[in-house]
Design brief:
alpha/beta; globular; 301 residues; Nucleotidyltransferase, domain 5
Length: 301
């Protein structure tokens, strides 16, 4: 965008369950914030249409003649060579030219990055990771992702997969993952992964919210599943901390609202981390469980 004027910024955070739109004015103030369900069950074309509609709905709130950028955070990444989406837990996006199709639909360029990168950027600029050297940002929701911010700059890497801890294979005998591996972090500590584990064990499907509530109420099946989730969280995050030794870990996504992550979960991290005294702060995000929409707005073009 070639202009010396500060733009309005539209950000879209595309999740597996919900999609959120944000419009920031040139001073960074929130003009509009909207959530709606992601039409995942209706397929790829419905998602393109829905995201384009949310962008168009924000445009009338932009001051007439003012510059505006658009940025999209997605649960995957865009291959820098082919332009196709890969590694997306919303699997209907995989192999699709999502960025190009949105640009054609809207008649304008859009920025697009991994949603965990957008979340990490937001928390580094304004949130719980502000002022820290190396921040590991974690999204735990329908899927599970991560981002790395070093001295205020989010690291993508040449393959755009930096921080993508959701597809560490931590259990070779574990459940199949859509990525083609078995026992990935995402199969262990995402909402969809825990729900699938409960269904495999007990032949009944419960939502993650219900599993958590049932555990707190003392229901044996829910309690066992939830305890396994907390143990898996500790083991998985301890591995990432041992690898990166970050100054801070910031948790985001819907599951970051689970209070036990910051008590029992941290105790489990201490059990598994490669150090006898864990000093790494493991913090809840301070911008809300959908902080990534701010990062999406900031990466817009």
């Amino acid at each position: 965008m070639a202009t010396g004027r500060s733009p309005f910024r539209i950000g879209i955070d595309l999740g597996g369950t919900k999609t959120e739109a944000l419009l920031l004015d040139p001073d960074g103030g929130v003009v509009l914030r909207e959530r709606r369900g992601t039409p995942l069950c209706h397929g790829y074309e419905a998602i393109v249409t829905s995201v384009a509609h949310m962008v168009r709905s924000a445009l009338p709130r932009v001051m007439h003649g003012a510059p505006v950028t658009v940025g999209i955070g997605i649960p995957g990444s865009v291959d820098p060579v082919t332009g196709l989406v890969r590694n997306a837990n919303s699997t209907c996006l995989i192999g699709r030219p999502f960025q190009a199709d949105l640009e054609e639909e809207l008649g304008r360029p859009v920025g697009m990055r991994n949603d965990a990168d957008c979340f990490t950027l937001a928390e580094c600029r304004l949130g719980a990771g502000r002022g820290q050297g190396l921040v590991f940002g974690v999204i735990m929701g329908t899927g599970c992702g991560g981002g790395i911010c070093i001295d205020g700059v989010v690291r993508e890497g040449p393959q755009r997969i930096a921080g993508e801890w959701g597809h560490f294979s931590v259990d070779p005998l574990g459940a199949d993952c859509y990525c083609g591996n078995r026992g990935c972090v995402e199969t262990k500590i995402s909402g969809s992964g825990v729900e699938a584990a409960f269904a495999r064990t007990y032949g009944e499907r419960l939502s993650m919210d219900r599993i958590v509530a049932g555990s707190r109420e003392g229901e044996p099946r829910c309690r066992e599943t939830f305890e396994q989730f907390l143990d898996d969280f500790g083991r998985c995050l301890a591995g990432a901390i041992s690898l990166l030794d970050p100054d801070v870990v910031v948790l985001g996504g819907g599951l970051s609202n689970i209070d036990e992550l910051y008590t029992t979960g941290i105790e489990r991290v201490r059990r598994y981390v490669f150090h006898d005294k864990l000093t790494t702060p493991i913090l809840k995000n301070s911008l809300g469980d959908s902080a990534g929409v701010f990062g999406a707005a900031w990466i817009g073009v």
